Amino acid sequence: MSTVIYRLVYYSRNHIPDQNGELDAEIKQILERSRVNNDKDGITGALLFNAGCFAQVLEGPLDAVERTFERIQQDERHGDVSLLALEPIAERAFGSWAMGFLGRSETNAHRFAEVGTKSGFDVARLSGDEIHSVLKRLAIEEEAAAA
């Protein structure tokens, strides 16, 4: 019996203060916890952090994806959480990533040029498909650079 896989795309506003390295430490903690929980729950995906916003794609069984999204909505580090897409998909785009992070490096800042031009680095102005496409392209580039 095969399980239907769903893709959920959302964005939120960062509510983590950026003082004394707190922001980097909190993002690191979010990623570490996400990778453990997502691996256990059969969820893959990628997280983008830029200009005070998070954008994320989650892929997995519907109940696991919905539970994860509910935790995110209740997390005080996220504000104005907005669901952009929730739909069944034929296959995972981030199958090898329990939670990939694409964010604050200079290399990725250059890669975000297209997003910045289109949205002023405001992920709230992008659709779920656009965020998914950007994250998928960046993940492919990240994997190629690591190889």
From TrEMBL:
SUPFAM superfamilies registered for this protein in UniProt: Acylphosphatase/BLUF domain-like (SSF54975)
Span of domain BLUF: 5-100
Lineage: superkingdom: Bacteria
GO molecular function: blue light photoreceptor activity; FAD binding
InterPro entries reported in the protein's UniProt record: Acylphosphatase-like_dom_sf, BLUF_domain
Name of the molecule in the record: BLUF domain-containing protein
